[in-house]
Design goal:
Elements: H1 44-55, H2 81-84, H3 91-95, H4 103-114, H5 119-123, E1 137-145, E2 174-185, E3 190-197, E4 202-208, E5 210-214, E6 219-223, E7 230-234, E8 240-244, E9 249-252, E10 260-263, E11 266-271, E12 276-285, E13 291-301, E14 320-327, E15 331-336, E16 348-352, H6 374-377, H7 379-386, H8 390-413, H9 437-447
Antiparallel strand pairs: 1-2, 2-3, 3-4, 4-7, 5-6, 6-9, 7-8, 8-11, 9-10, 11-12, 12-13, 13-14, 14-15, 15-16
Helix pairs in contact: 7-8
Length: 461
């Protein structure tokens, strides 16, 4: 937002497993009237011009993400926001975070995951999915081989160790990762998510909320007040927890007609239990204003009770365990020890993004989805967009949005407050959502391909 041979070979691209009869990797669609006119699809340049014209109405607005303005269907990608917005583009890097028996190795594993979490922006163009509606939810699995290689974490050549200490002895059976997300609030727009991998003893959770401001030439996107980052917990290491905060990003190219994502900010990865912290600084502009997509960082020991280090230059050499440098859209390297990155003769490849592409999701079949489950909820709009029936798609989209407004007005008249179904609250002050009993049951069902769910007692849209 996103490896020299012995030290850490490249993470290989593994083909996604074939979907079983109970799951699907394809978008689910519903039939739309055949009489609806087929229209010429706008090209990307005309899409952006129209989008730019709409954005100009919001010059000076503090947070356009909170306005929730409605776009015509021809400007949208036929993808639900809850499905699009996840951090598991390469699940094998996520499940390997806890493999090391050493704290530094686990932090390096966390960083390897970090640089794959927004692979969709490295490999594809930014897009505008559907706005999520209140109570809408999405669930899926990923199944991947546990093939992420060990990471060297000591100058003596020692690598990470686990039940299987080398890439060659690791099990090649598929590991399942399950994912649940729900739109818990509409004003402000907030969704909660939970990732669960019982086999590897690792979970992740957090709230997704964005704040956006149009500058006239680009859109600056920052985490919203309830988005405190990704919280990863290693259950096999006594609940060791990592907090990964998000940097600000810019969506540019509006005037050129070609969208691109750039990052020029500082973010942090912390683990209070191991007392290890990482500062990552993203540097966007180089000489003569050339985009460089550079990232540099420092891994160091810190005092969680007195955390005063916010910049790389603030960290004394005596506390440094390693350094990070590279291109977050290409290759990222690390060095061990306190020596300056440029002077260290052993630069180890943490991740090479070039051969990697997002892994396909395994989604419950449409007949097992509830009416407020993302793909089924938006199926009519999706089908109309794919059939280039943009007028019909806009009409169906507006009907869903109006239904949401009507239900909100009804709750207000009844003095009733919306309650999420799968998470215990719309937000929490600490940024970590908890599951309800229904939420726990959804994840247990995903683990076993049991997708049966009782319909919601109340719908938000």
């Amino acid at each position: 937002m996103a490896e020299p041979a012995l030290a850490a070979p490249k993470v290989a691209v593994k083909p996604s497993p074939a979907p079983s009869a109970a799951t699907s990797t394809e978008a689910s669609t519903a039939a739309t009237p055949a009489t609806a006119p087929v229209e010429k699809a706008p090209d990307d340049t005309s899409k952006l011009r129209t989008f730019l014209g709409i954005l100009r109405k919001f010059m000076g607005v503090a947070d356009i993400a909170a306005v929730r303005f409605s776009l015509p269907a021809q400007l949208l990608e036929p993808t639900p926001n809850l499905e699009y917005w996840n951090y598991l583009d390469r699940p094998e890097t996520f499940i390997s975070i806890g493999d090391s028996e050493e704290a530094l190795g686990r932090m390096l594993g966390t960083l390897r995951f970090w640089f794959t979490k927004d692979l969709k922006y490295v490999k594809g163009k930014p897009c505008k999915p559907y706005n999520s509606t209140l109570g809408e939810f999405f669930r899926c699995n990923w199944e991947v081989e546990d093939t992420a290689p060990p990471i060297k974490h000591a100058p003596d050549g020692k690598s990470t160790s686990s039940a299987a200490s080398t890439a060659s002895t690791k099990s090649t059976k598929n590991v399942r990762i399950s994912y649940l997300t729900e739109q818990t609030s509409h004003h402000p727009p907030v969704s909660a998510f939970f990732v669960d991998c019982p086999e590897k003893g690792i979970i992740a959770r957090g709230f997704d909320q964005l704040s956006a401001k149009f500058t006239g030439t680009s859109i600056r996107v920052t985490p919203g007040a309830h988005n405190l980052g990704i919280f990863i917990e290693l259950q096999n290491w006594g609940g060791e927890q990592y907090q990964l905060t998000h940097p600000a990003a810019h969506l540019g190219g509006l005037l050129r007609g070609s969208l691109s994502v750039s990052v020029a900010d500082t973010c942090y990865v912390t683990c209070a239990k191991t007392r290890i912290k990482v500062i990552l600084e993203y540097l966007e502009e180089g000489w003569l204003g050339r985009t460089q997509n550079k990232v540099q960082g420092v891994i160091f020991t810190y005092d969680p009770e007195n955390d005063t280090k916010a910049k790389i230059k603030d960290v004394p050499d005596k506390d440094v365990l390693g350094r990070i440098e590279g291109n977050w859209q290409d290759k990222v390297y690390y060095t061990l020890g306190s020596q300056a990155f440029a002077k260290n003769t052993e630069k180890l490849l943490l991740i090479d993004l070039n051969p990697l592409f997002p892994v396909a999701k395994l989604v419950p079949p449409i007949e097992d989805q509830l009416s407020n489950e993302s793909r089924k909820f938006w199926a009519g709009v999706t089908d109309a967009i794919l059939n280039k029936q943009f007028g019909l798609a806009t009409q169906l989209k507006q009907e869903l949005e109006e239904r949401q407004r009507e239900k909100a007005a009804d709750r207000k008249a009844r003095n009733s407050e919306w309650q999420p179904r799968f998470f215990t609250g719309a937000t929490t002050p600490i940024g970590k959502p908890d599951l309800t009993k229904d939420g726990e049951d959804v994840l247990k069902g995903l683990h076993t391909n049991n997708f049966n769910l009782e319909p919601n007692k109340e719908l938000g849209a």
